[in-house]
Write a structure and sequence with these properties.
Layout lengths: L8 H10 L2 H5 L2 H15 L3 E3 L6 H5 L4 E4 L3 E4 L6 H4 L6 H4 L1 H13 L5 E7 L1 H10 L7 H9 L1 H25 L3 E6 L7 H22 L5 E5 L6 H7 L4 E3 L6 H7 L5 E6 L1 H6 L1 H15 L4 E5 L9 H13 L5
Parallel strand pairs: 1-4, 4-5, 5-6, 6-7, 7-8, 8-9
Antiparallel strand pairs: 2-3
Helix pairs in contact: 3-7, 7-10, 8-9, 8-10, 9-10, 10-11, 15-16
């Protein structure tokens, strides 16, 4: 899903000079350079903006930092009144570095390379805002939603509004397609999944379409299983990203008939390389590539992945032809 970064030596060399991760995301010349690095190596069909989903909470005034070996650490929201302290006014100005990165990329990318902007989906972003970072069970955030759905809805609504605004701003700066990442959608049972994940995605998609009807959106509701089909029918996106666990034939017959699909090579297979990588890549291509399809991973690339494995993957995908 994420092209740029940790597996490339040039990325690690640059990051060693740029300080903390959030500053890297919000320094346009650096973020643009990191976005361009994998394009120079592999000439992918699309470049995805180098940033992070937690840029938005940071812009809303929440404390966000990234610690080596721990990941994101946020000043957690602990009560409904904390939502009122989030600073919506002036959001565009605080997100200006991201928009400047997009403008630079639109100038510097090859004309044939699509620029993809992105944001985190409201539930996934809210989970970090409430948990104060990553979580194994999302117990604090889920308990809030169950115990006080009114205030939790207020937070989700705020994130719907600001995420739509953020994505529209990326398009106006030069993004040609968008992706909405709901990495933790799969932790909910169906009724809550609809309320906290599907409905917000549908609303964001509708708002972006109203402003920019020709810009496609891909939604990634990771871990939702058979409800991928429901997302295909109801969320309004032109594409869905498939996580690694989604059965290919089922996706072909139940999802790909409704929307384009993106996915879904296991990042560990790419890390392992060799015959396993080639076999898995061929299986995905032979099942999905004859219909609207974007080859990608089923989740983020691992930092220890050898770049030569990525080169092998790219060459195999480009050489693929439909079986006679």
């Amino acid at each position: 899903m994420r092209q740029a970064g940790r597996y490339l030596p040039e990325y690690r060399e640059l990051r060693a000079r740029t300080g903390d991760f959030l500053t890297t995301c919000l320094t346009p010349e650096v973020a643009a350079e990191i976005t361009l690095q994998p394009i120079r190596r592999f000439a992918f069909d699309a470049a995805i903006l180098f940033s992070d989903i937690l840029v938005l909470p940071h812009a809303l005034g929440q404390s966000v930092r990234f610690e080596e070996g721990r990941g994101p650490v946020l000043g957690a929201l602990t009560r409904a009144a904390d939502i009122d302290d989030l600073a919506v006014r002036g959001l565009v100005d605080r997100l200006a570095p991201v928009y400047e990165t997009v403008r630079r990329l639109r100038t510097d990318l090859p004309a044939q390379t699509t620029l993809v902007g992105f944001a985190g989906a409201p539930w996934t972003v809210a989970s970090y805002m409430i948990e104060g970072g990553s979580s194994k069970d999302f117990a604090t955030a889920k308990a809030w939603a169950y115990q006080d759905p009114v205030s939790f809805q207020r937070l989700i609504d705020l994130l719907v509004d600001t995420t739509a605004e953020y994505l529209i701003g990326q398009v106006e700066a030069g993004a040609e397609a968008l992706q909405l990442f709901d990495s933790w959608a799969g932790v909910w049972p169906e009724p809550a999944l609809r309320r906290w994940c599907l409905d917000p995605a549908r609303t964001i998609r509708a708002r972006v379409r109203a402003a920019h009807p020709d810009v496609p959106m891909i939604v990634f509701p990771r871990g939702v299983g058979v409800l991928y089909e429901t997302f295909a029918e109801e969320c309004g996106a032109e594409g869905l990203s498939l996580d690694t666990t989604v059965p290919l034939s089922w996706a072909r017959d139940r999802v790909q008939t409704k929307v384009a699909v993106q996915g879904n090579l296991d990042p560990i297979a790419l890390l392992a390389g060799g015959d396993a990588q080639r076999a898995e890549t061929a299986r995905i291509l032979d099942t999905l590539a004859a219909k609207p399809f974007i080859f990608n991973l089923g989740h983020g690339i691992l930092p220890q992945t050898p770049p030569e494995h990525v080169r092998t993957l790219v060459d195999q995908v480009r050489a693929w032809r439909a079986p006679a």
